[in-house]
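User: For my dataset I need records formatted as: sequence, then structure tokens, nothing else. Please produce one.
Assistant:
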Amino acid sequence: MADKRSKSLLITVFGLPGAGKSFLCKAIQDAILAKSSLSPTSASTIPTVITVSYDVLIPQVQPLLWKGQRRTVLNALSLIYRKSTDEKTTLDDESTEEATKMAETILQLNGLSFHSTAFRRPFVFLLDDNFYYRSMRYEVYQLAVTLRMGFRLIFIDGNCNICRERNARRSAPVPNEIFERMTGLLERPETKYRYEENSRDFKSNWQQEELDDAIACILNDTQTPFVWSQDLEGMKDMEEVGLKWKDGTTKGVNHTADLILRGLVAERLLAAAMIADRKVAAGNKRDDVANDVATIIACKRMVFLQFKKMDVTTLDMAMDRDHLKQWLSDAFEETYQKACSIFPTKEHLGT
């Protein structure tokens, strides 16, 4: 990859639970595989499609483990791609072991192995997940830049009521409260962000013509080497992608971080009040939420102090409000869960 060119693609396929993401991924994978079978002479130019289902790879886990599991999936994709190009991995020993196991699982689920002849062809990775925060898609974009792969998005814009009904019919449905939360938090792709310029929308009831057009675009991308601009070296273009701070100083970043954390605290306090109200409505004694309030506020202070100690001017999240919000949200949740584990009798809010 010395010329920083690649015919391979990372594609995030995202939308609400029940929107039809897995169905669309399978349709794309089957259609491209069929083209390879119908034309053996050009099979070497047809990409190897690998579906990466987060629901299968990451079952319901504790919040503290969830973010690490998602990182392991991306590390596994990096490992698969680097092995196909005989490039050495940059992961540490522990991360490499976890990523190797995850990579082997991904390949097995797609009927492949590290020794498959399919490794000689370009890859199309279809990442099947909700990706409701823009920062989640941004993380995949970062991997694409690092590996010099093409990056595309497919958003399935499903009707909420239809998605809710489909989800309820699943053998392992997403809990209603989580589904409703995703509905409110889902951030649609916007072309004002550079990493979301190449986005394609599907409805849940998409037609065959739409699928054919999408596949034609994918195959076209894998026929023409994707060239990253040298301006992207080291992710230096993030100022063009995300938020530019008003004064460009660390003080401005800290102020924004504090506002975001205040919003997270407000959400937690509202959740505490709602839980207490539901217990009263059910005829139970109202809980004293004072201890929860103190814990929530203490967690906010701890996360803010942790953030202030970081050299945010060197971090990508200092350039992108969505990325910053995601980092703070994850750090706040992790700190709160740790606090709850110290006091096991406390009820976890939002559950």
